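Researcher: Good morning. I'm working through a list of sequences from a screen, and I'd like to move beyond sequence-only analysis. For each chain I'm collecting a predicted structure so we can compare shapes side by side. This is the next one on the list. No need for commentary yet; just the structure.
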Amino acid sequence: MHRLSAVIITLNEERSLGRTMESVAWCDEIVVVDSGSTDCTLEIAGAYPNCRVIAQPFLGYGPQKRLAAAAASHDWILSVDADEVLDDRLQASIQAWRRSATVEPAGFQVLRRLCFMGRPFTHGSESRDPVLRLFDRRRGGFDDAPIHERAHVQGPVGTFQGRLLHYSYRDLDEYFEKFNRYTTTMARQMQRDGRRASVAGIICRMPVSFLVYYLLRGNWLNGFPGFVWSLLAANYRTIKYLKLHELNVSARERSEEMRLRD
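Model: Good morning. Structure tokens for this chain:
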């Protein structure tokens, strides 16, 4: 049987962590890396006898997950976010793999399904977003991205049946709490990468992005929540580039001030 460690990073996740933990309770081990929760997150995690909690100040999403995978007792890592839940079919699919003795890929994708405004999306790309979440840490791991991190492996990748349910935001208040932090982080990363954002591109980005999310990605089939998600996603992309433009303008102004002083 393949020994499996589930790893989760947390910060004040008491509203969602219980159902996440329950969906991975059958794993040989659960490693929770917490970055300073002040709610009941640690009590919820501690209720599971196979759970080990590690305190670690936040390093960024990629580095934090790399630390969690390195701290695990087993080489096969199942990485789950605190707002994600393995549905019954996905749990059964992974447990069947654990009992097998076949030649293994380096990792496995799972299909993630967005749950937003109380509705699981059953149409379009938001209902089947492939993410690599189970992997052999000897052949791969997470990158160092501070946000929107991904796991990468050297070797073939399989796919499990079932869905990873992503309860991304409890409500719009939580969405906008994260919105400002995420768009600022992404804008700063793009600036470090030397990216630019033109005024014309920013003006066009909102309507074009909305059409892509709503029509091309099939969110019009997900009812009113699909419309709202497409609107918010388009706004996210627009504000991210608007902040990049602002950062670049400020950098040019500072550079010009320094040149004039010299």
